[in-house]
Design brief:
With about 625 residues, the protein is an alpha+beta fold. The chain is built from 20 helices and 22 strands. It has five domains: about 110 residues; about 90 residues, Distorted Sandwich (Calcium-transporting ATPase, cytoplasmic transduction domain A); about 130 residues, no CATH class; about 130 residues, HAD superfamily/HAD-like (Rossmann fold), CATH 3.40.50.1000; about 110 residues, Calcium-transporting ATPase, cytoplasmic domain N (3-Layer(aba) Sandwich), CATH 3.40.1110.10. Strand 18, helix 15 and strand 19 form a beta-alpha-beta unit.
Length: about 625
């Protein structure tokens, strides 16, 4: 609602400005100062009143030299000189920038609503042989809850009845489901996949894992100070310098040389010339242009402050699953012993077609032929695999535990990835290697980051063997494995304590706390969860991690162009100041150039950010 009011104020002020300009320049020219002031004042106050109030509040708090005070003092100088239209125009552009910033902030706050989806509101409690639903927050430690296949586990606890497999990706980020047998501990926010289980509750809702993830995001957002906008940082230096120099011109120089009236007039002239119109327009335009350029390349940047921050990062931290890897299982190798590769795959696919398990589906997808087998007596054995019969011959498709259970002598495998063994009628046929495939762009992205003197780091909830293999494949030396969401946040905070500027790249709900805790959060937009995308500052729409080095180059270029505009604008204005201070004749034409000419040149320079190429030298 407030955002709509701000937009309405901008449009109303623009209309009032247009009317005032026509009235004073076309209908009644040469009106007295006070009459012109009264005509332009409504347009100025409609859009500038909030800025004036905020500046006054900040002065009361001791925070004087911010961008609000810069706008007030500059436009006040313009009004004192009779340049009413310019005063309103500058305040209009400033207000438009404020509106865009507020929109970006509101969108990022939506992430908490999406995170709440991983924490069920109710639990199915079993007491005295009766099953009933209760608010999860009212379930006590020691009570028994039932979780059916496809449901999220509402509270942390231990399995006391039933064997199943659990999708833990929301908590650990690990792509492979985990077997959960009687006696195993399970966590809230994870999904029961195959069989009903009974769980003895061991933590209240507030202390359960899903709640901890939500709290981590809240706390990380609170700890992460609101990024200062580029113009805010600049205003803290520029404003006191301008005011100080105007004071010297108006009051110090006359004490030495006399001519109070002329020097006060020169000071007001200087305030007008120093009006940061070129900066207020061209600096945000530099970043908005770069944001537009990034969007054309499939990179969504949620605000100019995000672009400013990513230009300064020296450490990029990657999650593994769905970021450096594809986030989907595939058959990467077939190792036959007593049958051909095709026969092994064909047999495994015939059995696995009846399972919804992600690994089973990857095997079925890899086999391109027709199913010629009639499968019967199929039994799913949780944590092990599948037993079935074809032509009354027993077929086993599963892990080593399944082979040992049925006494099948099999080949030991040390290769990382998920190993699926196949046996027919007690004879070992061979095995498949299933893995979350590495993204082709990962290795190139890491190389480009290293070339730019940016350190790549990997933090993952996956096991050490798989993490080590992926890290070696892409060229990352510094990595940590088997991490829970809170541990990822701790690692990010440890890097920050070393004065590292970090960007975290992730895609899962479990990555949301780390995305919020880092200086810049980057989410994968294709496979990424809603919570990760909303929490992140930047979204890679097609999940191509090679666009991260490109994004950093675009951000650095935008920052460089913004600095060029600042240096150029200030240099010209200082030149005008010196000439006007020392009484150079016919200075008005140069003053006009300093105001309008610098604005035009700065805007043209800023527009170069709209066409930044993808090359390394962009």
């Amino acid at each position: 609602m407030e955002e709509k009011q701000d937009v309405f104020k901008v449009f109303l002020s623009a209309i009032l400005l247009f009317v005032a300009f026509i009235f004073t320049n076309q209908i009644f020219e040469g009106l007295p100062f006070i009459i012109r002031l009264l005509i332009y004042l409504p347009a100025y106050l409609v859009v500038g009143f909030d800025t004036i109030i905020e500046s006054a509040e900040n002065i009361r708090k001791g925070e004087i030299f911010d961008e609000n005070f810069l706008m007030v003092i500059a436009t006040a100088g313009a009004i004192a000189m009779g340049d009413f239209a310019e005063a309103v125009f500058v305040m209009l552009f400033f207000s438009v920038g404020e509106i865009f910033e507020e929109m970006a902030e509101e969108k990022s706050e939506k992430s908490l609503d999406d995170l709440l989806k991983i924490r069920p509101d109710t639990a199915r409690v079993i007491a005295d042989g009766t099953e009933f639903e209760r608010e999860a927050k009212d379930v006590k430690i020691g009570e028994i809850i039932l979780v059916k296949p496809g449901e999220r586990i509402p509270l942390d606890g231990t399995v006391i009845e039933g064997n199943t497999e659990i999708d833990t990706s929301a908590v650990t980020g690990e792509s492979a489901p985990r077997a959960s047998l009687k006696g195993n501990r399970v966590f809230s926010g994870t999904v029961n996949m195959t069989s009903p289980i009974k769980i003895r509750v061991e933590a209240t809702l507030e202390c359960s894992t899903a709640s901890k993830i939500i709290d981590l995001v809240k706390n990380a957002n609170e700890k992460k100070a609101k990024t200062e906008r580029f113009i805010t940082k600049f205003a803290k230096i520029y404003t006191p310098v301008v005011i100080g120099m105007a004071f010297i011109i108006a009051f110090v120089i006359p004490l030495i040389f006399g001519g109070w009236k002329a020097h006060i007039y020169s000071a007001l002239t200087f305030l007008v010339v120093s009006c940061p119109c070129a900066l207020v327009i061209s600096v945000p335009l530099s970043f908005f242009g770069a944001i537009g350029c990034a969007s054309k390349k499939g990179i969504l940047v949620k605000g100019s402050d995000c672009l400013d921050e990513i230009s300064a990062v020296d450490t990029v931290v990657f999650d593994k699953t769905g970021t450096l890897t594809k986030g989907a299982f595939e058959v990467v190798a077939i190792h036959p012993k007593m049958a051909s590769e095709n026969d092994i795959l064909k047999l495994a696919a015939a059995i696995e077609q009846y399972s919804t398990h992600p690994i089973a589906q990857s095997i079925v997808a890899h086999y391109k032929g027709e199913n010629e087998y009639f499968v019967e007596n199929l039994k799913n054995i949780p944590g092990m695999g599948i037993y079935a019969e074809i032509d009354r011959n027993p077929v086993l498709v599963g892990n080593e535990k399944l082979m040992r259970k049925y006494g099948v002598t099999h080949k030991q495998c040390s290769k990382s990835g998920t190993i699926v063994h196949i046996a027919l009628d007690g004879k070992y046929l061979g095995h498949l290697v299933i893995s979350d495939g590495l993204k082709e762009s990962g290795k190139q992205a890491i190389k480009e980051l290293k070339d730019a003197q940016i350190e790549p780091v990997m933090l993952t909830g996956d096991n050490g063997e798989t993490a080590g293999e992926i890290a070696e494949a892409v060229g990352i030396e510094n990595f940590e494995h088997s991490l829970l969401p809170e541990q990822k946040v701790e690692k990010i905070e440890a890097l920050s304590a070393q004065n590292k500027k970090t960007a975290f790249v992730g895609d899962g709900i479990n990555d949301a706390p780390a995305l919020a805790a880092s200086n810049v959060g980057i989410a994968m937009g294709g496979l990424g969860s809603d919570a990760a995308i909303e929490t992140a500052d930047i979204v890679i729409m097609d999940d191509d991690v090679s666009k991260i080095p490109l994004l950093i180059r675009i951000a650095k270029k935008a920052r460089l162009i913004a600095k060029q505009n600042i240096v150029f604008s200030i240099a010209v204005k200082v030149g005008v100041l010196l000439l006007s201070t020392f009484g150079a004749p016919h200075i008005m034409w140069f003053a006009a150039f300093a105001d309008a000419g610098v604005l035009l040149l700065a805007v043209l320079n800023a527009m170069r950010t709209m066409k930044i190429s993808g090359g390394k030298n962009a």
